[in-house]
Amino acid sequence: MKKPILAVALSALLAAQAGFAAAEDVKVGTIMGITGPLANFIPPILNAAKLAEADVNAGGGILGGGNFELVVADGQAAAQPSVDAATKLVNLENVAAVMGALSSGATIAAANAVTIPNGVLQVSPTATSPSMTDMDDGDFLYRIVPSDNYQGEVLAKIVLDEGIDRVAVAYVNNDYGVGIAGTFKENFEKLGGTITGYEKHEDKKNSYRGELATLANGDPQALVLIAYAGGSGAKIVKQSLEAGLFDRFIGTDGLRDDLLIEQVGPEALATSFFSAPTSPAENPAGEALHTRFDEVYGEGSDKPFVDQSYDATMLIALAIEKAGTTDRTAIKDALRFVANAPGEIVGPGEWKKAVKLLAEGKDINYEGAAGSHEFDENGDVAGFIGKFVVDGDSYKQVAIFE
Question: Which residue in 144, 157, 165, 189 sits closest to 335, CA to CA?
Fold first, then answer.
């Protein structure tokens, strides 16, 4: 009688060990601009990614119960540091995929030098440069915000709707600035507006007074400034005000930074407005995520790109779960299957539901806090652009364009 009992016990032990062995820990790289011009944006963006990480692990883990771990590297929102960060993540940390980078230049540099050649899926929550659309990326590069081709078009319409038909344009000389400045100029002029001055600038100068004096010629009604507040943006606004050259500013997402309000004061920005990628107005999934976010971190759910950071991290996790492996090509191939319709809808915080559906062989369609993420053949998505104004010590959304 003892031998059958022993055999049964041994079989149970081996089955348990096999189940344990099947669980695979997974590392995903996260390239953040912890230092550099986007540093002020980072804490809530990183917290959002960490919340997605926590949701996966609290929901039973990944690939049979393994731990889902984000490995964070500082890309400084610059090209070479982001290449270095991606190299460390891909070659030393052996991550399964990469979430980030944030700025367009950093994302493109890391993709061209590291993730594409190594066949690693890279999903940016924030990179908007139009040049990403036609990159030869082998389908390894994605983003979940609309291209600046769309933001530039929307911004042109917003400016003209404000009764402003003569503007000067100052833009930072990088992928982000060049891309959106070009699309804004094209659409603004097409709609009947006049560009009185159009100047690019470098990001780390101490003075922009010469460029601003030139841009003030031609009687512009406002300065359209496409730059990061933590780089050239806040300096240009301050120097414009100090010299009496411009008193109304129109910015894009890089300028929609609390740092700008802190440095120049809300009164100086009372007539200014800003465009930025945003989330749908009526979205219970987003509202629920914001409530949980503020419960965990105290505040910050209203900051830029919180929704997109959570969604990008969750989409990568879902792609890994769908693939059933950490094989990098299989993960890339699985992304559209968890992001695009058709499929049963799952949302933020519904990791257990998603895992169950995938285990049953069913299709899922992740509908995120930032809306649907239906990737086209280029890894681009449609989306939403918001119009923001300064409201006290923060920004208030006053319109959404889909």
Answer: 144
